């Protein structure tokens, strides 16, 4: 579906002219969400910890001249407060954080600082804005992992088995708390494994397999090959947001 067609669909036409902030705009899903928002006419400001590298997806999607970037840390409350105020933000897509499950396992303290403290800082800054800012929190199906099969089971209560999953579930709980206690407009989406253009994390199955094949090497199958995973195309995930 082309940009012009998207612009004429009611769910997408609502975004025309909206002032939106995307945290993690230089990341995989954040980059695609940012592109789609620009395509449908939103005014987008991206929050990133540091400038994107020359090979970053952000540049590959042609966003360099379409999005104003604001550099800072989620742990810095004053930075978030200024970013929201200076840009008169109406909606925030919160996609930033530590997303590498293996790295989160090795360094849980840093993960909790970014993913939990960063989220409550953002929610508090949104609550204090006038009017309050709407927040969509990007969570993960990792909160559903079954202890025996490691398969997500959406009909069961969340069961976190890793620091990464714990940080995501905490973000959801914080958001629901701000919704019920303060009326902050908040929602969350729990995504399965994403794949698609621009994914440069070669520890993931699909980009890792593609790189191996292009190099004439056998793909790396981690584990015994029996685990099952759900996959979702990243542009579909961006449209769902």
Fold blueprint:
Elements: H1 3-7, H2 10-13, E1 19-23, H3 28-39, E2 43-48, H4 57-60, E3 68-71, H5 77-86, E4 91-94, H6 101-106, H7 108-128, E5 134-140, H8 163-182, E6 186-191, E7 193-195, H9 205-214, E8 231-233, H10 234-240
Parallel strand pairs: 1-2, 1-4, 2-3, 4-5, 5-6, 7-8
Task: Tell me what the structure shows.
The chain is of the alpha/beta class and 241 residues long. It is built from 10 helices and 8 strands. The protein has a 6-stranded parallel sheet, sandwiched between helices. A two-stranded parallel ribbon has the order 7-8. Helix 3 (28-39) packs across helix 10 (234-240) and helix 7 (108-128) runs parallel beside helix 8. The longest helix is centred in the middle third of the chain and has 21 residues, at 108-128. The radius of gyration is 18 Å and the shape is globular. The two termini are 16 Å apart.
């Amino acid at each position: 579906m082309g940009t012009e067609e998207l612009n004429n669909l009611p769910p997408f036409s609502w975004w025309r002219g909206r002032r939106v902030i995307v945290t993690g705009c230089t990341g995989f899903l954040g980059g695609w969400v940012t592109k789609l928002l620009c395509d449908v006419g939103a005014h987008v400001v991206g929050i990133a910890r540091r400038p994107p590298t020359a090979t970053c997806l952000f540049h590959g999607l042609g966003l360099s001249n379409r999005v104003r970037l604001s550099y800072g840390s989620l742990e810095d409350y004053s930075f978030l407060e200024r970013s929201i105020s200076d840009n008169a933000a109406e909606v925030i897509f919160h996609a930033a954080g530590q997303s590498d499950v293996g790295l989160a396992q090795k360094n849980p303290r840093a993960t909790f600082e970014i993913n939990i403290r960063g989220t409550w800082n953002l929610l508090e800054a949104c609550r204090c804005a006038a009017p309050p800012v709407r927040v969509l929190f990007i969570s993960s199906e990792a909160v559903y992992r079954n202890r025996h099969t490691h398969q997500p089971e959406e009909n069961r209560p969340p069961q976190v088995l890793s620091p990464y999953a714990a940080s995501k579930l905490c973000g959801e709980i914080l958001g629901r708390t701000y919704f019920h206690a303060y009326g902050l407009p908040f929602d969350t989406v729990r995504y399965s494994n994403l794949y698609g253009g621009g994914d440069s994390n070669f520890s993931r199955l699909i980009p890792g397999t593609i790189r191996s094949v292009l190099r004439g090497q056998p793909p790396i199958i981690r584990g015994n090959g029996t685990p099952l995973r759900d996959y979702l195309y990243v542009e579909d995930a961006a449209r769902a947001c």
